[in-house]
Each structure stands twice: as C-alpha cells, then as structure tokens.
C-alpha cells in the first residue's frame, strides 16, 4: 500500500502536476486518423486540456486550445460548428503515424519516435482503433503489465471456436503444440515472472512451466510512460497506449501489427464498431448494463460471464476499482513485480525531471531513441532448460519471414 499523497502524485496528470510533467515529455495518441474524415476542427480531450485539432496556414495539423463550457462533461465532444478556439492559448505539434495522430504537449523539442515494429511496418500491416474507459490512466496501464491476471480474468472454460477470434487474444494455439492458450492459462495459472528494465521501459517474461520439461514463454513489454506491447497471436502484436483524458477517464489506442499477412482493416473496423458508439468510441457494454453479464455463461463458458471479448473483461476490472484506484488499501504480491517496478521508474522519472535532468527519462536521449527496435513480444513453448534462447529464436524466425523489414 502507498500513501494518499503518493497515489495522487502518480495518478494526476493536469498541466501543473508531477506525473503530468513527465507524460508531457512524450508523444501521445490524440485522435484516430479516421476521425479526420469528419469536419474540422475535431475536439480533443488530452492530459486534462480541452483542445481542438485544426490545420495551420501551411496545411499541417496542430492542436489549439478549445474554449469549453464550465458544464461540459469530461468526454463531451461538441460538433465542429460549435467549437470555439482560443488564439492566445498554446499550440501543440501533431504527426500522423500508422492510423493515429500523435500530439506533443510538452516544452522544447519533441522526442524522436523509437523504431518500434508498429511504426516501421507497412501501412497494409497495421490497423489502429481506440476505446473509452471511465477510469484513471494508471490502473488501465497496470492491468496490461500484470501477466498473471490472464489466467483468471480471461479464463475461458471451453477451448473451441479457434477460428472466430475477434476480441479473443488467447483463442490461439500455442506454437509447437496443439494446446490452446486458453488451456495453458487455465492449467498453469501461477507463472514465474521475470522483469527486466530496458531503454524503453520494461521487458516482462511470464513462464508457465508445463509437463514433460516444457515451458510456455510469454514476453510482453511496458513502453514508458503509458503503453504496452503484447502478443495477440503468433503473427500479430498489440501496441496499446493508455492515454489520459483527465484524471478520471482515459482512452486506449491500439495498433495491431501483423508480421505475416496484410490486415483486413475494413473487417477489423466493422467488428469493433459493433462494440462501440461514435463519436466518443465508448463501449456499448459498460457499467450501466453490467457489462453484459450473464450468469449462465459464467457457469459454463467464461470466468466473468461478460462475453468473449477480453477488452470488456479488462474494462470491468479497471473501472470497478473506481475512477482513481485507492492504492492506500492494496496489498501487492509476487505476481505484481512489473507493477512495482514500473511505479519505481515513474517516481524516479518525476524526481529526475524536477532536478532538471530530462535526459535521464526513458527514450529522452534523442541520439538513442531511433536505435530502439522491436520490442520482442511473443508466445512460444520451449524446453525449460533453454526457454530464453528458443523464445528469442522463435521471434527471429517470425521476423525473417516478414514481408516488411522487421529485422533486429
């Protein structure tokens, strides 16, 4: 458990907050490029600021201050005709990357983008989407760096329907075996967890030691300050940012990156728009309808009884903690190693920035940022005696056959 003062320090992200100052050293997803098909300006709520996406005199996109009503709700999106901008307010640069418009709300020169797979893959192999969660950004991030939660929150009681895998991140079969990942997660629910600090944040390895001398190796990553990179299947990864709207709401922005075939963007968008409403991208399953809970389903099919889409499971878990999780009453355990390490990195970043040492923050040394590639993110089964080498080789083999330059 931590003090209320510390909880406030690491969760609140307004313009004059300590964590907010750290987050403003980085680029953040602001809107999906598909949203730019609507009339400009486009309303943007980001890091506690009410903004609008416009074009400057040269045709480049930028964010400007939006004049909002005192009664405007946190996630309210006015029509373009109703938006008023403040010419005296700050303006922020915007850059388009693989389906997402990223914005930099900090001072000085913005940092370089690392050479992550999601940024260097061909456009044909990346699909971007977003969704609203009504909670603080930090608890949204922390569920993504807890590799043990998948064995419980995303527990499927049946292993069929392998082909229909929308929203079913774990409805794949483990490489080198015919065992579905759903079965692995059920039968081996207590992974050994290794956490390693990297130039970009954290590399998190979950080891589920199986029968007959084999180990299921799942490598995921925390990309500082508020993103994760995790495997969706053998051929696709998810890079997901948890972007603060304000202290009590956030968006997840996801880039799905394929190492094999081009992605069917129309189909993926159609599937997800059936689960979200526009223009807010709010999920149709939410607190008001109990996230679609079905007690009969819970008895025979899923741990939550909330359908097959794991996004809904995560949404229920993070929103159920309240808008800002009360960490003064939590009791972290062995499976929370990555969460503990991440909070330490965030606190160290706050101290370094306060001391004027911005270069000490992850990926803030411009000469090194472009050299950061990957990161490795995959599922594999390996002999327990050589799990690290076999997992790394599985990633290299996937990259060698990739139609875009995925070399490391």
Can you give a write-up of this model?
- With 408 residues, the chain is of the alpha+beta class.
- It has 2 domains: 4-25 and 112-400, Naphthalene 1,2-dioxygenase Alpha Subunit, Chain A, domain 1; 27-110, Rieske Iron-sulfur Protein, CATH 2.102.10.
- The protein contains 11 helices and 19 strands.
- The chain has helices at 4-11, 18-23, 117-120, 137-144, 181-187, 265-273, 295-300, 310-319, 337-354, 366-369, 387-400, and strands spanning 27-32, 42-46, 49-55, 61-67, 84-85, 91-97, 100-104, 115-116, 126-133, 192-197, 201-209, 214-223, 227-231, 236-246, 249-258, 276-277, 282-283, 373-374, 379-383.
- Strands 9, 10, 11, 12, 13, 14, 15 and 19 form an 8-stranded antiparallel sheet that branches.
- The longest helix has 18 residues, at 337-354.
- The relative contact order is 0.18.
Keywords summarizing the entry:
19 strands, Naphthalene 1,2-dioxygenase Alpha Subunit, Chain A, domain 1, alpha+beta, Rieske Iron-sulfur Protein, about 400 residues, 11 helices, seven-stranded antiparallel sheet
